[in-house]
């Protein structure tokens, strides 16, 4: 997710700079000699007291220490998780949290990618890396194939895995990565019948949706029947859906399923910019999901409209700041949200739309 303030965020482009109320903790404008070339001179939020990752004397050593515990937790969760068609119905939030911790512990983008490919390997899902260059920047998307009937339309599910230079990118967007991997586990255990399914983990979203834009622009790229995006899936009581149309079979199914799970559901075409835009701008169908507090949504939309809400929503206090760590997550409603999403996709699969034509 690109943020409309000082740095790129929950995903406004760099051309969209809006004033955002500062969080309640003290802030300081700092220039860090450890920032990559081209990043120096930008303002970053940081608490007056306490260290950030950029302040550590030996980041690689600290990163290895942080990775060890999450890796063990994730391995245990994978070994003990049910691999039946009801995997998401029975799985506790521990496995999701362990994956978020593993991904956000990565000291750099390559380490975050490794946390994803390790999970895919453990699940027996084939994957490959796709290098790209766009706008003078180089990145690497990770694409996995769950298979399906050869002549079936493509369902693409994805999330960006890169982060900004400050914080650990737990909410933005290790949470979305973990959500895609949970759905992958469920769809691997009980495949869809009328769709082929691929997963995409985008690089350089925070630099202007570069990974997803490069993928869409690849000559001969297959147009999916639907792209399903996840960005900021960290807490709250409401499944927030970016849906260009509010009265579709998928929206209607998700609304009914959310009621059954006693989970809030808010669809609509007003939503922070993120990787779904690369698809919509190409004329390809796409939706996006977040898990946040329902009372945050109006204030978030105010921020992205360039307005100043009475109180800054939690999302805008956390993402792209030193606070974006696993301690900000609340996974209590994640299992219910995952059940809604899995069953919604299965409902879509039961009544698939015709394969798109170019």
TrEMBL record:
Residue stretches making up the Peptidase M28 domain: 141-339
Name of protein: Peptidase M28 domain-containing protein
Top-level taxon of origin: Bacteria
SUPFAM superfamilies for the chain: Zn-dependent exopeptidases
Pfam families, per the entry: Peptidase_M28
Lineage summary: Bacteria, Pseudomonadati, Pseudomonadota, Gammaproteobacteria, Lysobacterales
